[in-house]
Design a protein that fits this description.
about 325 residues; 3 domains; alpha+beta; Phage tail protein beta-alpha-beta fold; 13-stranded mixed β-sheet; about 35% strand; Jelly Rolls
């Protein structure tokens, strides 16, 4: 691939040699001056070992996922979508596999009230309702004469609402709207297609498009951008264990487990193998010992963890 002197301090230097080569080839193939000889050499490298193909596919998946991070988007706009080898190596790959990209993402949340990773916060609202924010969470308020509106931008929050028949208490999260008055409920907003609403006291109405679902105490409903499920009975103390300093997962998809863990620890886990995302996982995590989670995962699951930077750890199938 020619001279790579500019890569002496590249992110990912602690990866295995094949993965490091894959990162270098990814940068070379996204340069604005890719030569015929470079393309030919790249194809030969891919054919030489199936591990090369797998490692390159992994880097492509990581880059694709990281492209949605604000830091990467702004970098791509600034460079007019031209990804030069030097620019990709020094900025885009850094954002794709950790470092400042993830830190920027954590600080990106808009909102009147927000928490960082691992932080909890309790807020008394103007109507004397209360909201507890989990780690890496942000909310905005818009209280009017006829409506009490909270927007949950991302993260997880527990709401204890006061009764006011003239002003419904409404929480927007993703495509759905939760309406309640005098109820206590939790909203876990992992992604637009993964939102869980758990009711602890009284009842709440969930609206998605033209569909309404009423959820009573001790029940949970899940919704995405287009669909909403039926309420299921849950153990609220299990679903809301974060309020007591624990995370409890019972046959939960591993992707959701990792998203929850990323709210509570410095740095980020990145699942490299898509086949791991839906694997059911049962796990109890003590938030007071959150830095022990890598060891807990290694002991509990058939996975391999690779530390890329102080901020990012890849999760791969063993």
């Amino acid at each position: 691939m020619g001279d790579h002197s500019e890569w002496t301090d590249e992110p990912g230097k602690d990866l295995d040699p094949v993965s490091r080569e894959a990162v270098r080839w990814f940068a070379a193939m996204h340069a604005d001056d890719v030569t015929v000889s470079t393309r030919s050499a790249f194809r030969a490298w891919l054919r030489r070992d199936v591990r090369h193909q797998t490692a390159y596919a992994d880097i492509e998946r990581i880059w694709s996922a990281a492209s949605d991070l604000p830091t990467v988007k702004s970098h791509r706009r600034a460079s007019r979508l031209v990804l030069t080898r030097r620019g990709l190596g020094k900025a885009a790959i850094a954002a794709a596999i950790g470092g400042t990209g993830w830190l920027g993402y954590q600080q990106y949340f808009m909102g009147d009230y927000r928490t960082g990773a691992g932080e909890r916060r309790s807020i008394r609202l103007p109507d004397n309702s209360n909201v507890e924010l989990a780690g890496a969470t942000a909310v905005s308020l818009d209280f009017r004469s006829r409506l009490r509106l909270v927007t949950l931008h991302k993260g997880e929050a527990f709401f204890s609402t006061t009764q006011d028949p003239a002003r419904p208490f409404v929480v927007d999260a993703g495509a759905g709207r939760t309406m309640a008055s005098g109820a206590a409920f939790n909203i876990d907003y992992v992604a637009d297609d993964d939102v869980h609403v758990t009711v602890l006291e009284n009842a709440a109405d969930i609206r998605l498009g033209i569909k309404d679902v009423r959820v009573g105490a001790g029940r949970q409903v899940n919704y995405s951008r287009k669909t909403i499920g039926s309420p299921n009975a849950v153990d609220p103390m299990e679903a809301l264990a974060w309020r007591d300093g624990r995370l409890v997962f019972v046959s939960a998809p591993f992707g959701r487990v990792v998203a929850s863990l990323n709210r509570w620890r410095s740095g980020k886990f990145v699942i490299v193998n898509p086949s791991l995302m839906e694997r059911p996982v049962t796990l109890i995590v003590d938030l007071n010992a959150i830095e022990d989670v890598p060891d807990v995962l290694r002991d509990s699951l058939p996975i391999r963890l690779v530390s890329v930077t102080p901020y990012v750890m890849f999760i791969m199938a063993a």
